[in-house]
Amino acid sequence: MQDPPSQYKTLGVVQLIGGVLNATLGFFVSGLLWGAGGLTVGGCLMACTGGLCPVGFVLWAVPFVMPLIGILELIVGILILAAPGAVKGMMRFVPFLQFPSILIGDFISPILGGISLFMLSDAEVKAYIQG
Q1: Residues with Cβ < 8 Å from 131, sequence gap 6 or more?
Q2: 7 closest CA partner among 121, 96, 131
Q3: Residue 126 pLDDT > 80, yes or no?
Q4: pLDDT at 67
Q5: SS3 state of residue 122
Q6: Is the confidence at residue 59, as pLDDT, over 70?
Q7: What is the 8-class DSSP label of residue 88?
Q8: Which DSSP string corresponds to 9-21?
Q9: Where are the domains of the chain?
Q10: b/e per residue, 87-116, with b = 16+ CB within 10 A?
Q11: What angle do CA 72, 30, 105 make, to 5 degrees?
């Protein structure tokens, strides 16, 4: 089995750090948003419209997406470091999953997505992923 290049291992460390930050920040932000605004406004909208207004559900459910993205990044980072061959095929798609998270106020994942794309564009890393 071929040893992974150093940039691939660095990518695992970057994903791991980003996952810890996103999970921690995500749980804080989701608790803040859900407790202060999401539960109140979302609950009122859902109650007043009989659950037909999608805005109420979005305000209630969206804050929990950031911790899930952080957990995904944690898992990917751990797998890259522990079993690099297991996630070789998936690594091309992970950065594209991180970019849309800016829509929910997450600024860490899009930066990680850009760094990941830059590291994945290295010739040595491309050769490792393809072969």
Answers
A1: 2
A2: 121
A3: yes
A4: 84
A5: coil
A6: no
A7: T
A8: HHHHHHHHHHHHH
A9: 6-130
A10: bbeebeebbeebeebeebebebbbebbebb
A11: 75
Q: Can you tell me the distance from the alpha carbon of 10 to that of 78, in angstroms, rounded to the nearest whole number?
A: 12
Asked if residues 108 and 22 have their Cβ atoms less than 8 Å apart, the reply is: yes
**Two tokens at 55?**
């805005």
If one counts every other C-beta atom within 10 angstroms of the C-beta of residue 78, the result is: 15
- Rounded Cα distance between 91 and 80, Å, is 9
Q: In angstroms, rounded to a whole number, what is the distance separating the alpha carbons of residues 131 and 125? A: 10
The set of residues, in sequence order, having a beta carbon less than 8 Å from that of 87 and lying 6+ positions away, is: 76, 79, 80
Separation between Cα atoms, residue 5 and residue 8, nearest integer Å: 5
Rounded to whole angstroms, the Cα distance separating 54 from 98 reads: 24
Using CB atoms within 10 A of its CB, is residue 75 exposed (0-12), middle (13-18) or buried (19+)? middle
Q: What is the pLDDT of residue 44?
A: 67
Pinpoint the alpha helices (H) of the chain. 6-33, 43-48, 54-61, 65-82, 94-98, 108-120, 123-130
